[in-house]
Automatic annotation (TrEMBL):
Residues 17-117 form the HTH marR-type domain. It comes from the Bacteria. It comes from Pelagibius litoralis. One of its GO terms (molecular function) is DNA-binding transcription factor activity. Coiled coil: none annotated. Pfam families: MarR_2. InterPro entries: HTH_MarR-typ, WH-like_DNA-bd_sf, WH_DNA-bd_sf. This is MarR family transcriptional regulator.
């Protein structure tokens, strides 16, 4: 866990230096990524998927809406919990940051063994799924 945490903070610092991690942290890209790949969602849905406090996602969503990156739209399934979706400007920012992140990944993975990277990816995904199951069990 310490190695994963240390690696995360170093990745974040490199991203901040290159501009792909913004003042919002990785949250801006992460939220846009969720909306781009999974479609419009409510703030509670986005919070449960992370897992973080709903208030954290609400604050981020409100800030992003004020910047014109996302918008709240009516939710046919729920009158009070509106859906959040990216605006065209938000989609453009998502694509720009994604391109920057891909370049960053290519740069720091140069010289790395592809099989080792695939093994690391598999291990991290397995750990993420195990932790998600543990959290699901605690919330049941």
């Amino acid at each position: 866990m310490l190695e994963v945490s240390a690696t995360f903070f170093k990745l974040r610092a490199v991203g901040q230096r290159g501009g792909s991690v913004t003042a919002w942290g990785g949250g801006l890209w992460g939220l846009l990524h969720s909306l781009q790949t999974q479609g419009p969602q409510t703030v509670p849905q986005l919070a449960r998927a992370r897992p973080v406090a709903r208030q954290h996602i609400q604050k981020l969503a409100d800030e992003m809406a004020a910047e014109g990156l996302v918008e709240f739209v009516e939710n046919p399934a729920h009158k009070r919990s509106r859906l959040l979706r990216p605006t065209p400007e938000g989609e453009a920012v998502y694509l720009e940051i994604t391109d920057e992140l891909l370049t960053l990944c290519r740069d720091f993975s140069t010289g790395q063994d592809l099989d080792d990277l695939q093994t690391s990816l598999s291990t991290i995904r397995d750990l993420k799924e195990s932790l998600a199951a543990l959290l699901d069990d605690e919330n049941a």
